[in-house]
Amino acid sequence: MAAATIRSQTEFVRAGRKLLQPWFHRFAGLQSCSAPHSQFFAPSEGIMLPAGSFNNRVAFITGGGTGLGRAMTTVLSQLGAQCVIASRKLDILQQTANEISRQTGNKVHAIQCDVRDPQAISHCVDQMVALTGLPDVIINNAAGNFICPSERLSPNGWKSIIDIVLNGTAFTTLELGKRLIQNQKGASFLAITTIYAESGSGFVVPSASAKAGVDALYKSLAAEWGRYGHRFNIIQPGPIKTKGAFSRLDPTGTFEKAMIDRIPTGRLGKPAELANLAAYLSSDYASWISGAVIRFDGGEFVSMAGEFNELRRVTQDQWKMMETMIRSTKGS
Ligand SMILES: CCCCC/C=C\C/C=C\C/C=C\C=C\C(=O)SCCNC(=O)CCNC(=O)[C@H](O)C(C)(C)COP(=O)(O)OP(=O)(O)OC[C@H]1O[C@@H](n2cnc3c(N)ncnc32)[C@H](O)[C@@H]1OP(=O)(O)O
Ligand SMILES: NC(=O)C1=CN([C@@H]2O[C@H](COP(=O)(O)OP(=O)(O)OC[C@H]3O[C@@H](n4cnc5c(N)ncnc54)[C@H](OP(=O)(O)O)[C@@H]3O)[C@@H](O)[C@H]2O)C=CC1
């Protein structure tokens, strides 16, 4: 009996390894395929704004230790900002902060903070004030997500995403907003949401609900807090390959090709492209942009939305035949 249990456990582990091996390989280099026409849309990953655009500025980026947050921190730091990155895992934050500081020559500070906890945010802001003063740029980027049929979702599964994404963004924004108002200091707030904040999406229902809430929060505050010198903007990215996102949204790698097929520009976005847009929206060059929602998705959203867009698959011969049929129709 015991031997049978051990054998079945060993088999289970073996099967798991076999299943997971391609996963580890895929995320080791975060490579992705692309369609031939993506050659027309080659990414420009160099820094777009003039050097020194963020000199004497302080930028606070939640989730700045990994993925897109790390890319945005790198660009802002390269452009002269003193950056403060915050999230739960201090070791990862510190490593990222050291690497970026070394690369750019500008100090990046790491502060541990769980954005679900308003007291932790207040303590984090105290630490930031002591290190750098209040920020000029705030990027609410921290998030949590996983694909899950809604009927399998527990109350705590729902709550964990709402707490990170919607409450985390609200607590961070309110804490910093109030302190900035008290100090009569203007600032640029940017939220990273997603294209399905607009449409909703099955299988990521907590994330869709929370991100839609963040969009509403930022549009509302753009209207209310302009009088205090605050701008609020939103970037809604489409798929950009990061370990954090793809390990939770496409764990087997099965859907990546289908995703690329429906993106008119034939490829995924690049972290550096998003970082350039975020830097622009957070800069003085964008001082008249507030309340804007920028979709950044290579055309994926409209491609999925249009009733007739699947006709892209129709060949020239099939078009000839269909045109003949349509033209030959008489009456209604
Ligand atoms: C057609 C397919 C398309 C494929 C798409 C591919 C690519 C992407 C394209 C577009 C992307 C668009 C938007 C992306 C949005 C993003 O936000 S991506 C960023 C994702 N990054 C992260 O999630 C990083 C942080 N995440 C985490 O730390 C964890 O994943 C988590 C969010 C779960 C929070 O961790 P923690 O606080 O430790 O929570 P717990 O582990 O305790 O879990 C809390 C409850 O949630 C339940 N749960 C966890 N995982 C799952 C799951 N996979 N399925 C169901 N339920 C889950 C867990 O059981 C706990 O509930 P209970 O206490 O058990 O009831
Ligand atoms: N990559 C993509 O395709 C897309 C991403 N997005 C959005 O872009 C942003 C970045 O995602 P991406 O870089 O891909 O994924 P990551 O998983 O790399 O980034 C999420 C970050 O959030 C931090 N975080 C999670 N929970 C908390 C918490 N409770 N408190 C503080 N920080 C937390 C994580 O750090 P830690 O674990 O240390 O706490 C991590 O650094 C997210 O807002 C995501 O929704 C939107 C559309 C597409």
From TrEMBL:
SUPFAM superfamilies: NAD(P)-binding Rossmann-fold domains (SSF51735). It catalyses: (2E,4E)-hexadienoyl-CoA + NADPH + H(+) = (3E)-hexenoyl-CoA + NADP(+); a (2E,4Z)-dienoyl-CoA + NADPH + H(+) = a 4,5-saturated-(3E)-enoyl-CoA + NADP(+); a (2E,4E)-dienoyl-CoA + NADPH + H(+) = a 4,5-saturated-(3E)-enoyl-CoA + NADP(+). GO terms for molecular function: 2,4-dienoyl-CoA reductase (NADPH) activity. It is an enzyme of class 1 (oxidoreductase). Its EC number is 1.3.1.124. It comes from the Eukaryota. Keywords: NADP, Oxidoreductase. CDD domains: TER_DECR_SDR_a. The keyword Oxidoreductase applies. InterPro entries: NAD(P)-bd_dom_sf, SDR_fam. GO terms for biological process: fatty acid beta-oxidation. One of its GO terms (cellular component) is mitochondrion. Pfam families: adh_short_C2. PANTHER family: 2,4-DIENOYL-COA REDUCTASE [(3E)-ENOYL-COA-PRODUCING], MITOCHONDRIAL, SHORT-CHAIN DEHYDROGENASE/REDUCTASE. Belongs to the short-chain dehydrogenases/reductases (SDR) family. 2,4-dienoyl-CoA reductase subfamily. Auxiliary enzyme of beta-oxidation. It participates in the metabolism of unsaturated fatty enoyl-CoA esters having double bonds in both even- and odd-numbered positions in mitochondria. Catalyzes the NADP-dependent reduction of 2,4-dienoyl-CoA to yield trans-3-enoyl-CoA. This is 2,4-dienoyl-CoA reductase [(3E)-enoyl-CoA-producing], mitochondrial. It comes from Crenichthys baileyi.
